[in-house]
Amino acid sequence: MSTQPIIVSASPHVHSDRTSKKLMYDVVIALIPAFLVSVYVFGISALIVTSVAIISCILFEYLIQKYLLKADVTITDGSALITGILLAFNLPSSLPIWMIIIGSLVAIGVAKLSFGGLGFNIFNPALVGRVFLLISFPIQMTSWPTAFVNNTNVVDAVTGATSLGIIKEGLNMGETMTEISSRIPSSIDMLFGFTGGSLGEMSALALILGGLYLILRKVISWHIPVTLLATIFVVTAIFWVANPEHYANPLIHLLTGGAILSAFFMATDLVTSPMTKKGMVIFAIGIGIITVVIRLFGAYPEGISFAILIMNAFVPLINKFFKPRRFGAKIKSKIV
Amino acid sequence: MLKTFPKGGIHPPENKITSSKGIKKMTLPKVVYVPISQHIGIPAEIVVGVKDKVTIGQVIAKSGGFMSSNIHSPVAGTVTKLDKIIDTSGYKKQCIVIRTDLKDESNFTDIAYPLKTTITLEPKAILQKINDLGIVGLGGATFPSHVKLSIKEGTKLDHLIINGVECEPYLTADHRLMLEKAEEIIVGIKILMFALHIDKAIIGIENNKADAIETFKKIITKNDNIKIAALKVKYPQGGEKQLVRALLNREVPKNGLPLDVGVIVHNVGTIFAIYQAIQHNIPLIERVVTVTGKKLENPSNYWVKIGTPITDLVNEVGGLPEGTRKIVNGGPMMGKAIKNTDVPVTKGTSGILVISEDEASRGEPKNCIRCGECVDVCPMGLEPHLLMNLSEKGMYEKASSEDIMTCIECGSCSYVCPSHRPLLDYIRFGKNIVKKMNTSKN
């Protein structure tokens, strides 16, 4: 007989080997391909932006939890690390360091910890940080260093608009899509990452790779990314078919901007997305429609961050109205 | 495609380490502790006194009402005490303590009756005998069988379902029984089909017991009207409602019974007990128990007398290994942890699982990350995270309207929760209070 006391606890007496920490680090692993592409495209500045965001997110979490909240420090759970990476992925590589630090403070301090920490936040912390910066520093936040393939020697010196920005500007000046299309990268370039934009949204391919990893590891389900991208595709296709000279084709909408990054990594944030598959589909359709409306009719060329934050606010309602069907609630089968 | 239930469920490591171990006869216990409440419902009433001599199979406690069951002496011996001892529930319960008479031959006669296939009793007599001989559901709930079989006039019944799923990890008692007593089980099924006037039966077996499926397929004939259905391995398929859904695509209504969809479900162990009772007049005094655990010297399956102290069982397999931290009466998903091995085996004991240090403790609960895994795996379509929250905050009315009472306590939610939240603990707690609220209302 062992000397240590026998444990008496209620069932179940076994547990799967999944932990929230493992889930978080799976997300980090999934972000690596996109990170490598961003370093390849933007060089050292991608490294700097990402490290600053990560370090300041973790540091702020530590400082606030330890000294302000006097609570347990949870920086090792991986969630602050993810917020840091995702925030960096939504920033231009040329953003001043102090702005990144402010963004991190808003993400961790305001969006996450003031709501009660991991699991209690309503809005995606990285997106709150990003949108705060976008509204506060619109010029710096929309100056995008263009990809080096066009400017091999001076990477950071040249800045330009994103493809969506070029389209919006051109349309506002009365140009047609045929005229504009010569100035935006081809779809193939967009797929591999040679286009202007924020750090993480460079290569659609790298992002899809990471997203597939998350789906395979069952960290996320396919419902949000697939529904979101399909909604963007379908809605933009309707406009494009109606007037191809005034609306960009759906492929451009899918491959530029943060559509893919958001579909796999931002909208799927476990904490701020609905609990049921049904809810997830509604949530993703909502994000898709709002995104397209902002892109086509709003003041900003890109609106997916706003769209996600808006739909984040609806998640409690979605959870309330799209419940799983209770077993035996309505009898489908008939007695023969 | 193998059949299964569509919503929820998990597939924990099966760990059926004793599936190739034939059922051995357990050494005769020197003393048995027979609780008078081994079934759901009213405890039986003791009809023997201290110093009384009892014979094997003699009624020692009489059914205390309709929702109750007779209890028979598992051994020939002398009643030494009527005492309250802690049983598997963790509470002190009235027990009849009998010292086995080691000189009495009937304790040692191995009853190996020849297979008897002809059914001589009339339906009414069959049901009466099931009642008299103390048969209760051996799948775990220990529901008195005669209650389940007392069907109101006019109820439409078209299927008898035999539960051979044994979806709990580690347990192999039903599996071995199906392999070793297949023909008896088939006769048992025919007895019930005859008694209840049901013309179709299905034995549901998960596909990890392919040998049992084969065994049955070999011995049934077309005229038997008994089907063998292989099911995909998924926990908790052994739950009545899940099993009916998997086999017949019928959904038992909320708060209803399989009876409501024309089905009656019995565990294979119960069917064997019914065979023994009807054909050979043997009361329920013995059952198959899997004694298992990764660190045990010699885990196996045993025929165990009801009332045998679990200590005896553990000694039979080589004693508790070094570093034992948990002893579970039942399987790892729904079994009850017990404080020590002084507890006796009852009609509901399907296994004893010994868990060592590395797997005994729970993980530290962390914040809910709202991943929705618990919602995904809940076979009843509930929202465990919500029910836990409501129970924790004392919002029982709301918990009740969120269907907390339909929870079958399978534990799938707690099993998958990546934040190790004690979901089922709080749901059980909430259920208890809602139950009390409901009874005080009526």
TrEMBL record, chain A:
The chain crosses the membrane at residues 27-60, 95-115, 122-141, 191-215, 222-241, 247-267, 279-298, 304-322. One of its GO terms (biological process) is transmembrane transport. Its cofactor is FMN. Its EC number is 7.-.-.-. It comes from the Bacteria. It is a multi-pass membrane protein. Pfam families: NQR2_RnfD_RnfE. It is found in: Cell membrane. The complex is composed of six subunits: RnfA, RnfB, RnfC, RnfD, RnfE and RnfG. Part of a membrane-bound complex that couples electron transfer with translocation of ions across the membrane. This is Ion-translocating oxidoreductase complex subunit D. The lineage of its organism: Bacteria, Pseudomonadati, Bacteroidota, Flavobacteriia, Flavobacteriales.
UniProtKB/TrEMBL annotation, chain B:
One of its GO terms (biological process) is electron transport chain. Its cofactor is [4Fe-4S] cluster. Keywords: 4Fe-4S, Cell membrane, Electron transport, Iron, Iron-sulfur, Membrane, Metal-binding, Repeat, Translocase, Transport. HAMAP family: RsxC_RnfC. GO terms for molecular function: 4 iron, 4 sulfur cluster binding; electron transfer activity; metal ion binding. Part of a membrane-bound complex that couples electron transfer with translocation of ions across the membrane. Its EC number is 7.-.-.-. Its main location: membrane. It is found in: Cell membrane. One of its GO terms (cellular component) is plasma membrane. It comes from Confluentibacter flavum. Residues 359-381, 398-427 form the 4Fe-4S ferredoxin-type domain. Binds 2 [4Fe-4S] clusters per subunit. The gene is rnfC. It is an enzyme of class 7 (translocase). Gene3D superfamilies: 3.30.70.20, NADH-ubiquinone oxidoreductase 51kDa subunit (3.40.50.11540). [4Fe-4S] cluster 2 binds at residues 378, 407, 410, 413. [4Fe-4S] cluster 1 binds at residues 368, 371, 374, 417. This is Ion-translocating oxidoreductase complex subunit C. It is a peripheral membrane protein. The complex is composed of six subunits: RnfA, RnfB, RnfC, RnfD, RnfE and RnfG. InterPro entries: 4Fe4S_Fe-S-bd, 4Fe4S_Fe_S_CS, Ion_transpt_RnfC/RsxC, Nuo51_FMN-bd, Nuo51_FMN-bd_sf, RnfC_N, Soluble_ligand-bd. Belongs to the 4Fe4S bacterial-type ferredoxin family. RnfC subfamily.
